[in-house]
Amino acid sequence: MLTLAPGLTYYPDYLNRPAQERLLQALREITRDAPLFTPRMPRTGKPFSVRMTNCGPLGWVSDVEGYRYQPMHPDTGRPWPAMPDQVLAAWDSLSGYSHPPDACLINFYEPSARMGLHQDKDEEEFAAPVVSLSLGDTALFRYGGLDRKDPTKSVRLRSGDAIVFGGPARLIYHGIDRLMAASSDLLPQGGRLNLTLRKVGKPL
Ligand code: MD6
Ligand code: FE
Predict the structure, then answer these.
(1) Could you read off the pLDDT of 9-26 as tens digits, one per residue?
(2) Which residues surround ligand 2, an ion (CB under 5 A)?
(3) Which of 14, 35, 180, 197 is 20 to 30 A from 157, comparing alpha carbons?
(4) Does the beta carbon of 132 lie inside 6 Å of ligand 1?
(5) What does the buried/exposed string (b/e) look like for 155-184 if buried means 16 or more CB atoms within 10 Å of the residue's CB?
């Protein structure tokens, strides 16, 4: 484990190859029930380059109306599939938080996709961290501070790596600049999957 900044911890190789393959298989089953959708920017409707789906009681969606969590898939209207045990186990071992996550956002990056600098702030419970798991091609992950203009650093997230955004790092700006083409053979067609596990609501 490596501390990149106060509250920002990095776990290289958190999932070994068999665990990555198991998780990938679980994600394939999830996307059969809850297909990847193309999120759009609020107001402008401009599509993200990343496609998404979710598992767990709540899922994060974005469309012209705004960003929000909701219990149904935006295209199928069905509830999101359950979180795999492996995802719940990762939360238990990495979050340091005593309640289960209620959302797991699954981002799929084609080789050319990226994600602009943003904060994860659509949750109510900032006492819970966000736990992130990466599969497939290596990504250049940029992180900064609480102000968009703060200086940034980068770390390469490889298949199987985990990072945790908690405490003073919970609301820092971060994004994905680019993928490293053909850096992993986990996904037959290349690309990258990132899972972010969250506690959205305050515990009852
Ligand atoms: C990604 N990750 O790795 C995008 N957010 O593809 C995130 O946006 C993220 O990794 C909050 C906490 C950890 C993350
Ligand atoms: Fe994020």
Answers:
(1) 999 999 999 999 999 999
(2) 120
(3) 35
(4) yes
(5) bebbbbbbbbbbeebbebbbbbeebeeebb
